[in-house]
Amino acid sequence: MKAFAKRILAVSLLSVFAMNAEAATVSLGYGNTDLVANPSGGRFTDLYNFVLTGLSSIDYTVTVFNENLSVYTAPTFTTISIFKFQDGAAGFNYGLFDAANNKILDPSALSTGTYTLKVSGITTGVYGGKYSLDASVVSLPVPEPETSLMLLLGLVSIGTLVYRKNNVVNKI
């Protein structure tokens, strides 16, 4: 019975410490803003720099908008690309890079440091290209030692009371 009680105590301690971790979500502030890239057409590179002060993960989405306008010139309609990126791999690229300009393939566990979201490409539209960037950073949970210590002291106190109660019952 004592071995079972020790196992229960160990499992409850581990679960309490694991649940004690807290995480915070922070938006980079770029939101779903439509960003016009290089209105004159041609190559562009947009850099969004940020600094992480602890273990974090980042989730980002880049959406491309191609907008066309149909103009009637007798006897047919002509399509004009208002916002468009060149087709192919060079037309539109984006990624997350560290301070040494290495591409981050797994943004789920980033350490402390400076990072850059880089969006680049070639525009072919009359007014360049248009895209939306949505990014959020989530700091990974880190247990607070003060809270864990208070929980541990509480469990030790309860264990001591149970132990004393069992010893008093056994002596009678």
UniProtKB/TrEMBL annotation:
Residues 141-164 form the Ice-binding protein C-terminal domain. Keywords: Signal. The keyword GTP-binding does not apply. It comes from the Bacteria. The keyword DNA damage does not apply. InterPro entries: Ice-binding_C (IPR013424). Residues 1-23 form the signal peptide. Pfam families: PEP-CTERM. This is FxDxF family PEP-CTERM protein.
